[in-house]
Amino acid sequence: MNTLRFFILIVIGPIAICGNFEFNNVRCLVRDRVFLDFDYCYLRSVNRTYKYLSLKTKLHKLPITNTVTNAQIRMRENKRILYNFDVRFDACKFLRDRSNVIVNWIFQTFADFSNINHTCPYHHDIILDKIPVQHINNIIQTVVPDGRYYLNTTWFVDGIPRADVMIYFTKS
Q1: What CATH number should be reported for the domain holding residue 139?
Q2: 116-164 pLDDT, tens digit each
Q3: Rounded Cα gap, residues 66 and 53, in angstroms
Q4: Could you give the CA distance from residue 132 to residue 11 in angstroms, rounded to a whole number?
Q5: What is the DSSP track for 112-164?
Q6: Residue 36: Cβ-neighbour burial (10 angstroms; 0-12, 13-18, 19+)
Q7: What is the pTM of this model?
Q8: What's the domain range around 131?
Q9: How many structural domains comprise the chain?
């Protein structure tokens, strides 16, 4: 009988435990103000259960035809390489074929709340509108281990770094 209880706890235990995602901070840094500006970049907490991220990039030189992005996810307390992720990808090519699995996973966290849903060229501003914590929690819940992280993305247009977006988050 004790063996049966132990087996049930092992099987049911991991299924019942769900992680929670929480935004801690967001920073949007402009490297080239002649090329772009951020109209806004913020986190909002409407109540205890509804929190979201929004940002709008005002592009001054259009169209955008050549974009490379460098994305890094790092665990803030731990510098072990196991919890670090660093990838550089051609954003225009990725939007055509979506072949990079990890980049596609990151893209899914904001694709439904953004106007970045077509291939290059871009003739408009970039908007991420009210990405809710609950949506991201559903995507990363089983993939990301618990901890404090930051996502740092550097956006290059025509080989020149134009902006950085850093998102600090906790998964517990």
Answers
A1: 2.70.220
A2: 988 999 999 999 999 999 999 888 887 888 888 889 999 999 999 999 9
A3: 26
A4: 31
A5: GGBS--SPSPB-S-EEEEEEEHHHHHHHHTTTSPSEEEEEEEEEEETTEEEEE
A6: buried
A7: 0.82
A8: 20-171
A9: 1
